[in-house]
Amino acid sequence: MWAVEGANGVGRPLAQRLLESGERVVDVPAKLAARVRLFDSGHNRKTDAHDAHSIAMVAVRTKGLRVLRIDGELEAMRMLTDRREALTRRRVQTVDRLQALLAELLPGQAKRDITTGQAKRMLATVRPRNVAGKTRRRIAAEELTELIAVEAKIKKATAELKAMVLARGSRLMDIHGVGPVVAARILADVGDVARFADRNRFASWTGTAPLDASSGEQNRHRLSRAGNRRVNHMIHIAAVTQLRLDTEGRAYYRRKRGEGKKPLEAIRCLKRRISDAIYRQLVEDARRAMPDLVEAGPGGHCGATQESSAVDLPPHIDTSDQPLPGPAPTTLRPIATTRKRPLTATG
């Protein structure tokens, strides 16, 4: 058995190669290894030798570590999602350069959200006569051509992601505001939903659960900056989409505003509500995919398993933590206790 710390992060390439070779690999949470290293004689010094020793100790003494398995479809979904996000960033940069060039060619006619059709019509009206103007127009035409190509790639990647999500049997897209891209990112990063015991653990992992910041008699909470920020961003997109449409999320947001909450606070409440809805849908999908498992597993719901895909991201907020190894068996004999005789007065 191989134990890899961060098998879904830095150690993912190694874990993938071991799994492809038919080896058994378990994922050791970084927090467990850090706790073992803290109580070791190395005074929590982080070296390769100390790390290897702490990881081995966790793997030997801890029960219930997640066993990784290969999931080619999930790996492909994750790569395609990363590719689409890179294309989106590239599109934004191309649009910025194109708008800057058009603003110089057509002063006072710049548009904030420009489309390829609008850019074509604007560029067709420009007929510069000097060398600088001709060069600027040629570069703008090249940027426009690149923008059209990038948008075509984005559209193709979105269609592929939608087909993958539907082929996996997920119904996340039934939730308002959750499209193919959001659903694919959630599936790729969550992997096996059995990692989360309940919706509260899932919300902690997504960063939608507020942190307690109470002091004395003052009871308050603050925004959590921890958790998986990519999934948190996807939930934020779903929340903003629900606010634009006539949905239950929009009505919920207005109720929170009526209770006196500020706009950002109301959006945070809506994001937590969407996080719970996503968790329930993931659990239902897991039950539907494994109907034979009727008893609740370690995750707290039907179909829960300790096996996880090698492409999952490890939870960072107390979701994958396992208890520390139990105390070693006692080797010393218990001290025999003798009952004290009461003092008696003697004549």
* Strand order of the biggest β-sheet: 1-2-3-6
Largest sheet: 4 strands, mixed
The structural domain count equals: 3
How many alpha or pi helices? 11
The portion of residues forming beta strands comes to: 5-15%
- Portion in helices: 40-55%
Low-confidence runs of at least 5 consecutive residues: 293-306, 308-328
What's the order of the H and E elements?
EHEHHEHHHHHEEHHHE
Q: What distance separates the N and C termini? A: 76 Å
Average residue pLDDT: 81
Can you put this structure into words, describing what you see?
The chain folds into 3 domains: 2-69, no CATH class; 72-168; 169-211 and 222-304, no CATH class. Helix content is 53%, strand content 5%. The chain is built from 11 helices and 6 strands. A 4-stranded mixed beta sheet has the order 1-2-3-6, with helices on both faces. Helix 1 links the parallel strand 1 and strand 2. The longest helix has 37 residues, at 131-167. The chain is globular and about 75 Å long.
